[in-house]
Amino acid sequence: MSFLGLGGAPQVSSEAKIQAAEAELDLVTDMFNRLVDNCHQKCITKGYSEGDLNKNESLCIDRCVAKYFEVNVKVGENMQKLGSSGAFAGRP
Amino acid sequence: MSDKPEVKPEVKPEVKPEVKPEVISLDNNASKIDQSSSQPKIKEIPKSKGYSNPALRAMGLPPLRIPSRNWMIFWAVVSVGIGGIAYDKYQQTKIRQKWCDRVHNYSLETLNPNEKVRKITIFVAPPPNSFLNDSMYVFRRYIKPILNSSGVDYEIRSENRQGVIRSTVSAEIRDLRRQILIKNLELEKLNTENQWFNKISKYLKSWITKSDKVLKDEQDYLKLQSELKDIKNLIGIYYQNESLKSQTTIYKDSEIIEPSLNGGVICIGRGAYKEYIQGIHEGLLGPLDKPLDDDSMVKFNSSKISEEKAIDIELPPKDDEKISLEVVNQDKIIENNNEDKVDEETNLENKKEKEEEEELDENGEKLLPIPKPFISPLDYSNSKLAPEFQKFFDSNSKIPTSTDESIIFQQPILVIPVYNIVGFLNIPRNIYRHYTKRYLMEEYGKATVSVIEQLKSNFNPQNDLDLCKDEENDWPKNWVKKGQERNSEWVQDLIGDERVLNKLWVYDAEKVQENPEK
Amino acid sequence: MDQLNQREQQEFQKLVEQKQMKDFMRLYSNLVERCFSDCVNDFTSSKLTSKEESCILKCSEKFLKHSERVGQRFQEQNAAMTQQMRR
């Protein structure tokens, strides 16, 4: 699960390795939580009429997740482009 | 002429014109008939109001100032023009709302989180001499709102050149045939193995158990690695929830046994429909492998989009006039069809050369050539109908795919015409069409509702090959002529084989009831 | 993560389990806050009305199902993306 190519720098100590893997995990869980919050905000109406998701909401959620991932990828690409051209200073 | 009384300096002035009762003045200066009053008038009565239309005056309306005749004509023409369009748009929204409300209830049905809704495939092709955007406009305006309000998922497959739809559809069918063939072969193999190796395998197992421990460690390691990568062990919602972890995605359509009640296909444009039918025939009746050229199955760019963004393969410049694009399009059609003609005459080597030449298009991007049809329409009656599928055809069951939904040709078809006339002399016809789009909305809305409600009927080989044939009347004659000279796909007649056509289904807009009982 | 050897991976697994529990707690508190803010608006009494109770029930069900669905889609998309990146 190497996300966006992070965690690729070869490090010797196992502590550092575990830390890097942990950071990756945190990224993934954080992304998931944001995804849940955002898609809930955008797709599910507030007046709760029933406890089940209907087809519209389900479709909306599917598309929301797909678009979120696309945005993730695109922003990553843009960041790389901007980073390589030196527009950002000191980005870890 | 009325007399004005003389103004005496000491007496209060009387400026009011007096009209003697005997004189009925019908002239322009119609002023109030007033008795000569003894009371002096304080106010000055304003001068006469000027021209008042006798027609208005006859109707009893007070003298109004209306614009001149020319202006009236101008405003009348403009308001009729704008009013017509406004009325048409208003009616369109009303009709759209009506169809949307009709299907809205389907979207309120509940779903479990691991279930996926029914998915429709939509094939879009651009009208001749025009952009893909024209067909997408038809889709977005008339069909998409209704699909969205009904809770049905869709996938759009579009093309920018002729032949892409045909090749993708036929490739899909061929893939499935190959899969089933491989599965059958493996089954047979297993059967024979079971008979022979039963005894031998028992003997071998005793050897294997000695080296078991080493294997087990490795397996544990791999299992651990895969578990760590699995998101289900990471996210809170799966915490200690084994039943949730083992859930698999269920496609709602896979639960429906009847293959023609799965999914659906909408072809937008007569060209897309032709290519689709040809693709089905090619896939079912054609050979599994490419004739002439066995190595390097040519990959083709068929743009798959799930929303509106059309990934243009050859990036047609959208600002330029259509003329330049027409040249570009025809160039490509020439390229593709040159390949056709050349192949028939020369051998493999020459063909490969030509393919390499064609790979760069005007923008310098690599344009992979579209594969020729594996079988020509004239050979349909000579070939066998997909022997791999035979048992499924006999039992009228779903051909097994990876998602357990029925394969595309088992799903019913709907064709939506895209009317698009070009030309200076056709401007009046075009204007008329702009004013009458509400009829299109009604028609297409009804057709889309038939897709959603799954009102299908059998494909009628005599009539249904000509679905939306009237769209061809709109195709520019020059384009058609040039296409016929080059043998391009769209201008040829649609030939179908009865064995294949009898297995197809069609969505029937006639079956949509105007007012469903609810 | 592929570079961890076997012992490290076992240590890591404990870490992952801890993280999962933490995330679960976070999910729970998030859910409580959400249902409260969406459903409970009437502070004329200190007991929940039946309307609010039913609303909370539906809200929590819906949110959990929503999370499940997002989780499944997330997994699918993740798998698709890693496959793409490997190409």
TrEMBL record, chain A:
The keyword tRNA processing does not apply. It comes from the Eukaryota. It is found in: Mitochondrion inner membrane. InterPro entries: Tim10-like, Tim10-like_dom_sf. SUPFAM superfamilies: Tim10-like. One of its GO terms (molecular function) is metal ion binding. It is a peripheral membrane protein. One of its GO terms (cellular component) is mitochondrial inner membrane. Keywords: Chaperone, Disulfide bond, Membrane, Metal-binding, Mitochondrion, Mitochondrion inner membrane, Protein transport, Translocation, Transport, Zinc. Residues 18-81 form the Tim10-like domain. GO terms for biological process: protein insertion into mitochondrial inner membrane; protein transport. Pfam families: zf-Tim10_DDP. Heterohexamer. Mitochondrial intermembrane chaperone that participates in the import and insertion of some multi-pass transmembrane proteins into the mitochondrial inner membrane. Also required for the transfer of beta-barrel precursors from the TOM complex to the sorting and assembly machinery (SAM complex) of the outer membrane. Acts as a chaperone-like protein that protects the hydrophobic precursors from aggregation and guide them through the mitochondrial intermembrane space. The twin CX3C motif contains 4 conserved Cys residues that form 2 disulfide bonds in the mitochondrial intermembrane space. Belongs to the small Tim family. This is Mitochondrial import inner membrane translocase subunit. It comes from Wickerhamomyces mucosus.
Automatic annotation (TrEMBL), chain B:
InterPro entries: Mt_import_IM_translocase_Tim54. It is found in: Mitochondrion inner membrane. Keywords: Membrane, Mitochondrion, Mitochondrion inner membrane, Protein transport, Translocation, Transmembrane, Transmembrane helix, Transport. Residues 1-20, 27-47, 336-363 are annotated as: Disordered. It is a single-pass membrane protein. It holds the Pfam family Tim54. One of its GO terms (cellular component) is mitochondrial inner membrane. One of its GO terms (biological process) is protein transport. It comes from the Eukaryota. Its main location: mitochondrion. Residues 27-40 have a biased composition (Polar residues). Belongs to the TIM54 family. This is Mitochondrial import inner membrane translocase subunit TIM54. It comes from Wickerhamomyces mucosus.
UniProtKB/TrEMBL annotation, chain C:
One of its GO terms (biological process) is protein transport. It is a peripheral membrane protein. GO terms for cellular component: mitochondrial inner membrane. InterPro entries: Mito_inner_translocase_sub, Tim10-like, Tim10-like_dom_sf. It is found in: Mitochondrion inner membrane. The keyword Transport applies. The twin CX3C motif contains 4 conserved Cys residues that form 2 disulfide bonds in the mitochondrial intermembrane space. It holds the Pfam family zf-Tim10_DDP. This is Mitochondrial import inner membrane translocase subunit. GO terms for molecular function: metal ion binding. The lineage of its organism: Eukaryota, Fungi, Dikarya, Ascomycota, Saccharomycotina. The keyword Transport applies. Belongs to the small Tim family. Mitochondrial intermembrane chaperone that participates in the import and insertion of some multi-pass transmembrane proteins into the mitochondrial inner membrane. Also required for the transfer of beta-barrel precursors from the TOM complex to the sorting and assembly machinery (SAM complex) of the outer membrane. Acts as a chaperone-like protein that protects the hydrophobic precursors from aggregation and guide them through the mitochondrial intermembrane space. Heterohexamer. Residues 14-76 form the Tim10-like domain. It comes from the Eukaryota. Keywords: Chaperone, Disulfide bond, Membrane, Metal-binding, Mitochondrion, Mitochondrion inner membrane, Protein transport, Translocation, Transport, Zinc.
